[in-house]
Amino acid sequence: MSGKVWLVGAGPGAADLITVRGARILAKADVVLYDALVTPEILALCRSADLISVGKRSGQRSTAQSLINQQLVASAFLYERVVRLKGGDPMLFGRADEEMRALEQANISFEVVPGVTTAFAAAASIKQPLTKRGVARNVAFFTSTTGREEPDQAALPECDTLIQYMGGQEAIDTAHRLIAHGKSPNTPVIVIENVSRKDESVSRLSLGEMMHGLSTGEGPVLVMIGEALRSRSDI
């Protein structure tokens, strides 16, 4: 007999931005397999669980996804209540499909608990909507991280507002490709590092300026591009 697994979204980082359901499940968990982007404040909600780091960070050595799948299945046969804790939302750039397939193949019951994705927390932090009447009617979330060494050259979508997750290392390439496809170099860009955390930092620049790269630290970086992100004083 196996236990049950919950794939829980931890949200962007701040402990009070996890859902009530997510916090309740963490409080009752027997074991929690958590990503590198999960903050200590979130882990403090795991009152009595065994904590297993399966950290995955872009551009850094991390646990292979196949091994995470194996650990998740094995944990379900050792514990009654297993939580796979992911930054943001499990269903957006969270490799959830692979983990759910592994659980299904092992006939393990599971549930998905959504989380606040970083883009929404970022928009709230800078007090600027991602859509705006007469300016931006659609939004695309994308990442250049595809599991290969080179970025996917067909990955850039065509939308009014573009949100690039894990975009710090790919900023120069993204800017060059967007401008080459007709995007104005004057297009506003907002770069937010460590969204919703105490050390959150916000930078405003243009797409043309982003061609020269970004100056960021070690935290997770979100790159937001589009006219909806122009400062109100510039409108």
Tally the beta strands: 10
Q: What global shape is seen?
A: elongated
Widest sheet, order of strands: 3-2-4-1-5
**Rg over alpha carbons:** 19 Å
Distance between the termini: 61 Å
Average pLDDT reading: 91
Helical amount among residues, as a percent range?
Answer: 10-25%
Taking pLDDT < 50 over at least 5 consecutive residues as the criterion, the unreliable ranges are: none
Summarize the main sheet.
5 strands, parallel
CATH class of the largest domain: Alpha Beta
CATH superfamily of the largest domain: Tetrapyrrole methylase, C-terminal domain
Number of helical stretches of at least 4 residues:
7
Structural write-up:
It is a single chain. The protein is of the alpha/beta class and 235 residues long. The chain folds into 2 domains: 4-113, Tetrapyrrole methylase, N-terminal domain (Cobalt-precorrin-4 Transmethylase, domain 1, 3-Layer(aba) Sandwich); 118-234, 2-Layer Sandwich (Methyltransferase, Cobalt-precorrin-4 Transmethylase, Domain 2), CATH 3.30.950.10. Helices cover 25% and strands 21% of the residues. The chain contains 7 helices and 10 strands. It has helices at 20-28, 40-43, 65-76, 96-105, 118-126, 171-180, 207-210; strands at 4-9, 31-34, 50-53, 81-86, 110-113, 139-142, 161-165, 188-193, 201-206, 221-225. The strands form 2 sheets. The protein has a 5-stranded parallel β-sheet with strand order 3-2-4-1-5, with helices on both faces. Strands 6-7-10-8-9 form a 5-stranded mixed β-sheet. A hairpin with a 7-residue loop joins strand 8 and strand 9 (201-206). Helix 3 (65-76) packs across helix 4. The protein is elongated. 38% of the residues are buried. The model has no long low-confidence stretch (mean pLDDT 91).
